[in-house]
Structure formats: C-alpha cells, structure tokens
Design goal:
The chain has helices at residues 3-20, 24-30, 50-64, and strands spanning 31-38, 47-48, 66-75, 79-88, 93-103, 109-116. By secondary structure, it is α+β, with helices and mostly antiparallel strands. Strand 3 and strand 4 form a beta hairpin. Helix 1 packs antiparallel against helix 2 (24-30).
C-alpha cells in the first residue's frame, strides 16, 4: 500500500477501535464533523454528524455488548472498503456486512455506507440505502440501453 492508502486504512481501523472501546474521543478523532452514515432499509438512519454516529455505537456497546472485527480491508488511497462482523454479545446476535468509506480533504471519514449480508426485502420495489443520494452521487438510476443489439 502507498502512504495515502495506509493512512486511509489506518483511519478506518481507528474508527473500529473507537467503536469497540466506545470511545467518543477516538471516534471524534477520525470522523468529519458532518459525517453521514447510511444503512439498509429498516435498520435506521441515515445518521448525520459525528455526535450522532458516536452516540449510536457507544449505545450499542453499552446495551448490546457490541464488538466488531474487520475481516477484509482494501484501500485505493481515496476510498476504503471493508467486510466486517458485528457481534452483539449481550443478545447472542451476529451480523456480517460490508462498508464503503469516503474521506474529506483532511483525511477524516465523511461518509459510511453499510451493506448487510442478508436477503433482499421482497416487499420493497427498490432495495437501496435509505436516504442515500444515488443520482446526486452519479450512481445509475436507470438500466443501461438495449444491449441485445450486436
């Protein structure tokens, strides 16, 4: 990894350390003031601001005994993606998923998009992160043109 790739990866690892230790100080040190954390439908969020994100995970540690591992991590120097496991030790639950991290100019986490390893909700016409501005971020909102023509 290049230095920038290592810095971004280290920031995400520090974020997980802050989550696991329920340390507001550690979380604030790596989260941008205006961070947004997006989640799948029915999970909650999006959470806006470092206070909201820190409060969420501090409460999870306290109430559910939450602990997280980073199972895989890749960094291209601009963004980071991880696969993780979330152990809720007080309730005997395990959740697996992945997250995509974007950073601000200062290298702090500006956006987190969480994806859970779970079945699609068939009652929803569109399965996507609640509140995420797909069109505004340049994601496809329509299928590609007719590809059947050679």
């Amino acid at each position: 990894m290049t230095t920038r790739e290592e810095q971004r990866a280290s920031t995400v690892r520090q974020y997980f350390e802050g989550c696991n230790s329920a340390s507001r100080e550690k979380l604030y040190s790596v989260l941008a003031d205006n961070v947004i954390h997006y989640f799948p439908p029915g999970v909650g969020g999006p959470y806006h601001g470092k206070e909201a994100v820190a409060n969420l995970w501090i409460e999870f540690v306290k109430e559910k005994g939450s602990r997280w591992t980073i199972d895989r991590l890749i960094s291209d120097g601009n963004e980071v993606a991880v696969e993780w496991t979330h152990f809720k030790t007080k309730v005997g639950e395990i959740i697996r998923g992945a997250e995509w991290y974007e950073f601000d100019a200062a290298g702090k986490i500006a956006e987190i998009r969480a994806y859970y390893a779970s079945p699609r909700d068939a009652s929803l016409q569109v399965t996507e992160l609640q509140g995420f501005p797909y069109a505004g971020k340049g994601f496809a909102t329509e299928p590609p043109g007719d590809l059947s023509r050679g």
